[in-house]
Write a structure and sequence with these properties.
The chain has 415 residues and is an alpha+beta fold. It folds into three domains: 143 residues, 3-Layer(aba) Sandwich (Trna Endonuclease, Chain: A, domain 1); 121 residues, no CATH class; 97 residues, no CATH class. The protein is 36% helix and 27% strand. It has twelve helices and 22 strands. Helix 5 crosses helix 8 and helix 9 packs parallel to helix 12. It starts with a helix and ends with a helix.
């Protein structure tokens, strides 16, 4: 009981802006057995390697060799983590904060929350490879398919099958792949494919070209002009080879890549799926709450702050995650961001207060609840009661300025 009271008294000394803890902010475990722990360890090793290069403890050649190996391991670890996240909701939730602050991810999310909200549809150029544009009319901002798939892996987006494409097994592209129908006798592609037509009133069966007279269809037997589709029917195909003169019903089929001259069948080709992408409406509130992070981060960095996104501080039992942890000199500022289309209720305020109570060795100089557009009256009362400062703004840009003002005030007081 005394320990809790001590924490509460200590919390009174925290400078409070108006701060909003997002419902999307979660406390994460960094168990060494998790894919994320492996990824963090590898990135830490890379950072250490960069420090050694800066301090001239290793040569440029040693750095290049070791860093390239580490980057390949990091890429493989990321691929494993996102692959596992497809079937692991908890891992997907842990991965989401890591990609929300990527500029292109922010642009995609902004498109679905504040933009046209239209699904991202594949566009096809001369190379026949699908491309995705946030604004297809201007085609200025393209999104790599791998980014969209990572957003699907982490449940930010949903995908719907649009089409399938066959890739060459050698050069792995669909650009110059053509279907080939061949003579089963000699293998030539120089074949004629003829439609066999039956005139229903007289029973005459001939090739379509025998019926064809200019734009008209005239029966070669009874000389009647066929004016309606129900006067005839297609009964099949007859093929002939212009090279060996063979006749057959079913040509053999394969595919040919003009780029690398590979002849392949359907079984040896690479079938790839092409999707359309839409926002996962189930986490709309979380997505909205993370859209302001890059704007706030840019403002803080331009004012000399070093940032960790997502930010993590040590707790008594586990690590505690914030939207941003900003450091300047000896000051530590935690920022939790929550954005909505209506006043934000009391839950984010309480969430932040609990995290402040659980902070162990590192107590923030300033705890900021960043809210767009604003807190409800009840939430404001709770924030005031617990000495939690709140930054409010109608847009992320306005909110960033309010945070800077409060942060600079806190730094000035502690200097």
């Amino acid at each position: 009981m005394q320990n809790a009271e001590r924490k509460a008294r200590t919390l009174k000394n925290i400078f409070g802006l108006k701060f909003s803890a997002s419902k999307s902010v979660t406390e994460i475990s960094t168990s060494e057995n998790t894919p994320l722990a492996e990824l963090d360890t590898l990135k830490s090793e890379l950072a250490s390697l960069e420090t050694q290069l800066i301090e001239k403890r290793i040569s440029r050649e040693q750095f290049e060799l070791s860093s390239n190996q580490l980057k390949e391991r990091i890429l493989n670890a990321e691929l494993r983590a996102y692959s596992l996240a497809r079937k692991d909701d908890a891992l997907a939730r842990q991965l989401r904060p890591r990609i929300y602050n990527e500029p292109i991810v922010q642009q995609v999310c902004d498109h679905f929350v504040y933009g046209s909200k239209k699904p991202l549809m594949p566009q096809f150029d001369a190379d026949r490879a699908p491309k995705y544009y946030i604004d297809p009319e201007s085609a200025k901002t393209s999104v790599d398919n791998s980014i969209l798939e990572r957003m699907v892996d982490t449940r930010i987006l949903t995908s719907t099958l649009y089409e399938k494409a066959l890739l060459c097994p050698s050069c792995k592209t669909p650009t110059n792949v053509f279907a080939r129908f061949k003579c089963p006798q000699c293998g030539s592609i120089n074949i004629a494919i003829n439609r066999m037509i039956e005139h229903l009133s007289c029973g005459t069966i001939h090739q379509e070209q025998t019926f064809r007279s200019g734009k008209d269809m005239i029966c070669p037997t009874c000389k009647k002009t066929l004016q309606k589709n129900d006067e005839q029917r297609l009964i099949g195909l007859v093929c002939s080879c212009n090279k060996c003169q063979a006749h057959f019903e079913d040509p053999s089929q394969s595919f040919f890549c003009r780029a690398c001259e590979t002849d392949f069948t359907l079984t040896s080709g690479i079938m790839t799926e092409i999707y359309t992408y839409n926002l996962n409406e189930q986490i709309l509130s979380e997505v909205r709450s993370n859209l302001g992070i890059p704007v706030i981060a840019q403002s803080l960095e331009s004012n000399g702050y070093q940032l960790t996104i997502p930010g993590v501080l040590a707790g008594e039992a586990k690590e505690l995650q914030f939207s941003i942890v900003a450091r300047k000199d000896v000051k530590i500022i935690t920022i939790d961001l929550f954005m909505s289309d209506k006043p934000i209720e009391v839950e984010p305020v309480l969430s932040l207060y609990v995290k402040m109570l659980e902070c162990a060795t590192t107590l923030p100089t300033l705890a900021v609840l960043a809210a767009v557009p604003r807190l409800s009256r009840k939430a404001q009362e709770v924030a005031l009661e617990h000495n939690i400062l709140v930054a409010e703004g109608s847009t992320p840009h306005e909110l960033a300025q309010r945070i800077i003002q409060a942060a600079e005030g806190a730094v000035g007081k502690g200097a």
